Amino acid sequence: MTIGDTVHLALRNLNQAKLRTVLTVLGVSIGIASLAGMVSLGVGLQDQFVGRFMKSGMFDAITVMSPQDRPGIMAGGMRGLGAGPRGVARARLDDDALRKFGALRRVKEVYPNLRVPVELKYEQFTEPYSATGVPMSARNEGAFQTFAYGTFFNNESENACLLSLDLAKQINEHDPHDLVGKQVRLTWIASSTAAAGAPSVPDNPMQLQHAEARYTVVGIVERQPGPGGLPGAALSGLMIPLARARDISAVDAGSLQSLFREPAQGRSYGSVTVKVTGPQFTEDVENQIKEMGFMAFSLNDALTGAKRAFIILDIVLSLIGSIALAVSSLGIVNTMVMSILERTREIGIMKAIGGSDDDIRRIFLVEASVIGCMGGVAGVALGWLVGRVINFGANVYIQSQGGPTGNLFSLPLWLVAGAIGFAFVVSLIAGSYPASRAARLDPIQALRHD
Length: 450
Fold this sequence. Notes:
By secondary structure, the protein is α+β, with helices and mostly antiparallel strands.
């Protein structure tokens, strides 16, 4: 018996029992739909998590600190981050160090994390704040992907600022949008010898005076940037271009020792962000920075741990979805056994005219595999449809709560092929017992069967 004859007989037999075949295929499709739906949920959640944080710039950023600004117990406890042994001169995190970081292979950008203490004034509103210096490269990253009102800075040298929506509501509770385009006054402590907006390090750190400049509000961000919105930066509702933050103060507020340093020592920073060309290069660059005597850390290890957790989640969801497929496989066994009982005499005739046991076994295995493939294709389609409906409903609810929408279900090609292939394999396994039972029938006894 040729392969074509085997397939023709298998399809004819399935067609003769349409209702039973359809119900069995439906059972398999429900099992595959539950399996594909569960796994696609896990894959979708992982894609959302990894994609959102990758876009935020967290996992291609390394935060660098100088051990000299972390004395005592903290420095001793952080030597594993590259602080170096006791008694060895500790590296200074200054402009020279920034140039060395920038010269490292796979490094695309280096900038200090500056927070300068200022006093924010607008009409009757007066409050002390820390203004965060934001590099131009942060455009369209993290919290700066969407704006409630306005837009990002045009250039790094303009006297412009961004406000968080919370801060904008504190200033103008009824109409925060009205602040865009308006000017606020920033007051800060500067050197008595410095020009306004561009102070220098004083010969005597006690010779300080107030300086003031007007900054135009160009945008209001939806949420207050944190570690996910600007790598290395602390929370701040007031943001200015990084170049302006450098000009406002020659003293980094994160390094108290720099207040009393000698002028010849130059400027030092509390922490610096080093951006690499890709997350896969983070570990190598981080190790090079540690070898230079600095403390460095990144969130790349956290990403690896998160991916491991999602793999476990996918396995658990797959096991849950496989329960329905296991139940549907029993339906295949039942269908095949019933088919044997109905076609016992036919099997006897095929054996009597020369059909071998392998021919009979192949017919039943082809029937089972056809049921599995049809159920697999229908199940993937059903799982995709149900996922779309649930995703739509979930996004409507999330949007009503003010949260970000996204694709909670992801059905990549490997999952489609895997689900159909899994249905095929399960069907073959389920059909192996009925096929063997049919092949073992005695032709004489089968011909006597009514």
